[in-house]
């Protein structure tokens, strides 16, 4: 619509110019926004999970991947166990150490009136539920904080009709690298990779023992108990095609008597002493 001004028509171009000047004046009045830093990565991930239910730009455990990949057990391996014909029953009661982030930690009163705990540990491949019995809960509950990276030490509970569970007995901080894992943590050596570096381990020879399955490890570890030395002990597991490093408490001094005993039990071709680099 044309606007009538003083009995005549105002030029359209003048109106457009005037409106543009008004808009510019409004923009000049608006305050400039200060520069803002992006949210810290951990907070951003938590916000993504809260809004969408999943992490989008990463995972809080990405910076701990080195330590998690070195651990002997993970939720992915436990899932594989449950799918085996024996449902992984040979591993029931096995002491393990699992790493991840606490997705849940809560308590519940027992019939006796004591408190026990229920936790959910999440690693980069899945989740596992943990049970914390009253005496242990009383000792460690203050260290079980949701969204914190931890190592949970305990025993596996495997049943044919249930998901694997962990009977939690201790909680430790989760380090970022394999080299920072506690010495007594069972670790896994992947194909083409060496064991995490240990003080003095590079100079001592390594003792390799080849066994058909993990079920035979306990027998070998009992033979190594009490013979502590500086030589790392490595188990080659045939049915899984992996090599596992025994906890440091089972490293040995591979003398003649021990080597003869191991060779008699497992065969000379399955017991080798390999010089360090």
Describe the structure in your own words.
This protein is α+β, with helices and mostly antiparallel strands and 277 residues long. It has helices at 12-29, 41-52, 65-70, 75-82, 134-140, 217-224, 256-266, and strands at 4-5, 8-9, 95-109, 115-122, 127-132, 149-157, 165-173, 187-189, 206-211, 228-231, 233-237, 242-245, 271-274. It is built from 7 helices and 13 strands. The radius of gyration is 30 Å and the shape is elongated. Helix content is 25%, strand content 28%. The strands form 3 sheets. It has a 5-stranded mixed β-barrel with strand order 3-4-5-7-6. Strands 8-12-11-9-13 form a 5-stranded mixed β-sheet.
Structural topology:
Blueprint: E1 4-5, E2 8-9, H1 12-29, H2 41-52, H3 65-70, H4 75-82, E3 95-109, E4 115-122, E5 127-132, H5 134-140, E6 149-157, E7 165-173, E8 187-189, E9 206-211, H6 217-224, E10 228-231, E11 233-237, E12 242-245, H7 256-266, E13 271-274
Parallel strand pairs: 5-7, 9-11
Antiparallel strand pairs: 1-2, 3-4, 3-6, 4-5, 6-7, 8-12, 9-13, 11-12
